[in-house]
Amino acid sequence: APTAAAVARAAALAGGVAAGTRGAVDGSAAAATAPLGQPTSALTCAERYFKGVEGLGSEGLLDIAEGLYQTHMGALADSYARQSEWFQTICSRCLTQSQREAMDDALDLPDLCLPGGIETAPLQHPSARGGNSSGSFGSSTERRPVQTTGALRRGLIKRLGQDFTAKQLAAYLSYDFNQVACQVVELWQKVLNVMSIACKEIVAFLRVSWEEAIIDHWSTTVLHEVVFGDIACPEDQSIGDLHDIAALRLRRTTTAKPPPKVEHLSLLPSLEERPIMFEQRYMPKPPAGSGYAELPPLLDGRLPSAPKNYRGVHLFVLVHGFQGNSFDMRLMKNNIALLYPDAVFLCSNSNEDNTEGDFAEMGIRLAQEVVNYICDWCPGSTLGRLSFLAHSIGGLIVRSALPLLHEYTSKMFTFLTFSSPHAGYFLKNISLFHMGLKVLQSWRKSMCLAQLSMADAADPRETFMYKLSKIAGFEHFENIVLMSCPSDQYSPFDSARVEIGGMLDKHSHKDVYCTMVRNIWEHVEPRKVFRFDVNFHIPENNLDSFIGRTAHILFLENQAIMKMIIHNYSFLFR
Q: Which range is least confidently modeled, 111-120, 255-264, 435-444, 557-566?
C-alpha cells in the first residue's frame, strides 16, 4: 500500500532508530543510498545526517537540522494527509451508518502532532462518522508544505544548550522523526481495522474509481458526433476523408492523459500509436421551428460495474471472418471477460472449414450451434441477453442465421460488426485487391465471394445479398454497432457503414445498392445505431497496407481499439 511505503520511508529517514528509543541513537544503520547487494560501512545517525560537514559550529548544525526537519517532516506530514484522506473516504463511502455508530471512537481522526516550531496547513477533513463525502481518494497530488519557524531553533537550543555535538542533535532529530512516524503507523492501524470490516465494499469502491480513470484515459481519442437526417444517406459524402484529417490533427496537438495508478503500461500505447475513433449517433431531424432535438441518453450510465437491470446471463457469440477460425476473436473475448467475468461466450467454430461456401448454409450451421449452446449452458430462463460480435463476413453469416433464431429475438441486445461488408463488394473499380478477388473467385469457385460481389445471379435483384437485405435482422437488437475504417480495402467503407456514401459511383448497380441499403434500415430506429469510424496508426508501407489488409486485421489484433469501445461504451456489453 502507498501508505505502508511511506511508513517504511519514514523509518529509513529516522535512521533505523526504534520509536521512542533514544538510547539506540549510537547504533548503526545501513546507508540508505547504498546499492542493493553491495557491502557498505555502517553509519551512526550523526554520520547519516551530518556526513561531510564536520567542524561546523552549533549554528551551522542547526541550519542543517532545519533543512532536515523541513524535508523529512514534510514527507511524514504528506503521508499522514493522504492516509487521512483515504481513511475518511472509506469510512464515509464504504461503511453503513450503523457500522459507523458501532465503531464510535475507532473512527476518530486526530490531527497530526508536529514538534514545536514546525507549521503546516491545517488538514481539512469532515468527520468520518458523517458519511457525506463525495470526493474520491487521491484527488490531491501536491505534497503538503512544511515550514520551520524560529521556535524550532529556540526549542532545540533550550533542550541541547548553546554548545552541543552533532551526535546529540542527531538524537533529537531521530526522536522527533520517530514520534511523528508513530502517528502515521497508528493511523494506518485504524485504516486496517476499517478495511477488515468493509473489505468487499472497499474493493467495489476502488473498482469504480479505476473504471472512471480508465474511461477518462481512453476518452482522449474518442470523438463524438451527432448526425441528423437520413441514416441510409448521410449529408456528408466524404466523412472518411474528414475523419482522417481530424485524426492527424488530433495526434499532433493533443496531449495524452496520464495512465491510471494501477495499469499495465504495455497495454497503453502512446497517443501517436493509438487509434482514433469517431462515434456517430443518429437521430431524426428536429421538428420544424423547434431548432433542436434531444439525444437519447446512454443506457444505465457507462461504468461496467453498474448493476444489471435484467435477470440471467449475457451470452456473447463471436463469429470469425473469411478463412478464419474461432481463435480470431479470442482477444476480443478475453478483454470483455476481464470486465464481465459473469458473461458467457461462444467462439463459433461451426464454419471454420466452410467460409467459402453458401452464406445461407453457413447461417444454418451458426444458428444450430447457437441453439445447441443455449440448450446446454443457458437452459430455461437462464439466458438474459444475446449479443453477436462478428468480423468481416462473419457479420453476414450472423444476419443469415437470425431468421432461424426467431425464438430468441426478445433476448437480442447488441450486434457489433468489425468491418463487415453488409452491402457487398463494389467490383466496378479496378484495384489490386479487387483484381485479386476476381481471380480468387474464379480459381477457387468460391460461392461466398460470388455472393458478395453479386455475381451469383444474372438479375441483381435475385442475388443473395439483395434477398438478405429484405430479411429482418438489425431491428431485433437494442444496439447496432458498425465499425469501419477508410484504410480497409477488404471491406468497402460505405458497405461496412451500410450507407449511400461517396463510393456509390464505384458500384456496378447503383439503384440496386441504394434499395439494399434502405431495405436494411427500413424498420430500424436511428437511436439504436452507432457508427464507429476508426483511424489506425499504420507506420509501415508494405503490401498488406497497400492492399488494405493491415487495417482489416487490426480489428482483431489491436487491443487499444477493443479497450476503447469496451470501457467507453460498457452499456453495449453489460
A: 435-444
Percentage of the chain lying above the pLDDT 70 cut:
80
The cell numbers describing 231, all together, are 441514416
Q: What order of strands is seen across the sheet that includes strand 222-228?
A: 222-228, 276-283, 529-535, 479-484, 412-418, 383-391, 313-319, 344-347
Neighbours of 84 (CB within 10 A): 22
Mean pLDDT of 167-191: 92
Single-letter residue type at 520? I
Query: Would you say the C-alpha torsion 445, 417, 482, 401 has a positive or negative sign?
Result: positive
> What is the crossing angle of helices 199-218 and 166-197, to 10°?
100
Tell me which amino acid residue 204 is.
A
Angle at 4 between CA 200 and CA 31, to 5 degrees: 160
Low-confidence winner among 62-66, 290-294, 384-388, 525-529 (lowest mean pLDDT): 290-294
Q: Rg of the Cα trace of the chain?
A: 33
Cell of 103: 465503531
Instruction: Report DSSP state, residue 126.
Output: -
Whether residue 259 contacts residue 244, with contact meaning beta carbons closer than 8 Å, is answered with: no
Residue with cell 434500415: 521
Answer positive or negative: Cα dihedral of 102, 133, 141, 117.
Answer: negative
Answer whether 93's CB lies under 8 Å from 126's CB: no
Which DSSP state fits 494? H
Tell me the three cell numbers of residue 39.
557491502
Cα dihedral: 2, 257, 552, 282 (round 10)? 120
The model's pTM is 0.79
Q: What are phi and psi of 226, to 5 degrees?
A: -115, 125
Render pLDDT for 114-130 as a digit per residue (tens, 0 to 9).
888 887 755 444 445 45
| C-alpha cell recorded at residue 476 | 431485433
Cell numbers for 147: 515550514
Half-sphere exposure of residue 89: CA atoms within 13 angstroms, side-chain side: 18
Strands (E), 424-484: 479-484
The predicted pLDDT at position 442 comes to 57
Check: CB of residue 480 under 8 Å from CB of residue 390: no
Grid cell in block for residue 135: 470526493
For 445-489, write each residue's pLDDT tens digit. 678 888 988 888 999 999 999 999 999 899 999 999 999 999 888
Alpha carbons 528 and 412: distance in angstroms, whole number: 13
pLDDT bin (cut points 50, 70, 90) of residue 441 is low
Strand partners, 374: none
Residue environment code for 382-394, b if the CB has 16+ CB neighbours within 10 A, otherwise e: ebbbbbbbbbbbb
Distance from C-alpha of 518 to C-alpha of 228, rounded to nearest angstrom: 16
By the 8 A CB rule, do 539 and 312 touch? no
Mean pLDDT of the chain: 82
Task: Work out the angle at residue 431's Cα, subtended by the Cα atoms of residues 272 and 495, and round it to the nearest 5 degrees.
Answer: 70
What does the pLDDT look like over 480-509, one tens digit per residue?
A: 999 999 988 888 899 999 999 888 887 778
C-alpha–C-alpha distance, residues 260 and 216, integer Å: 9
